[in-house]
Amino acid sequence: MIFDSDGTTTVVFQEKATLKTFLENLITGYDKIKNDHIIINLFSFSKLSKNDILEFLELSNKHRKAQKSFVLVTDAISYDDVPDEICVVPTIQEARDIIEMEEIERDLGL
Q1: Strand order in the sheet with 9-13
Q2: Using one digit for the tens of pLDDT, what is the confidence trace for 24-74?
Q3: Could you tell me the superkingdom of the organism this chain comes from (predicted)?
Q4: N or C: less crowded end of the chain, CB within 10 Å?
Q5: What residues contact residue 107 under an 8 Å CB cut-off, 6+ apart?
Q6: Radius of gyration of the chain from its Cα atoms, rounded to whole angstroms
Q7: Distance in angstroms (rounded) separating the CA atoms of residues 55 and 39
C-alpha cells in the first residue's frame, strides 16, 4: 500500500493486489492517515462493480463523520451508479477539487 501525502491530503493506492487485500490494507493503515483528507486511487482495478465501491462505504462514512473528505477515483464505474453517501470521481484532479469544495463548505458551516 502506498500513501502519497501532500499537506492535509493523502492519496492511497496499491499495485498488483485484489480489491479485498487493498481494503484490508487500507483499514489496517487507516490510523496513519485518519487526520487527512483521503483520495483512494482505484485505477489499478480495471473492473469494478457497484458492490465493490460499496465495500468502502463504512470507512467513508466514518471518515466523513470526522469532518474529513473521502473520495474514490475510478473511471470504471459512474458516480451515478453509487449512492450519494460515497463520492466517486473519474480523475485525481476532480478528487482534489471535491476536497477543496468540501473544505470551503465546512468553513462556512454548510
Answers
A1: 2-6, 9-13, 37-41, 70-73, 87-89
A2: 999 999 999 999 999 999 998 888 899 999 999 999 999 999 999 999 999
A3: Bacteria
A4: C
A5: none
A6: 13
A7: 15
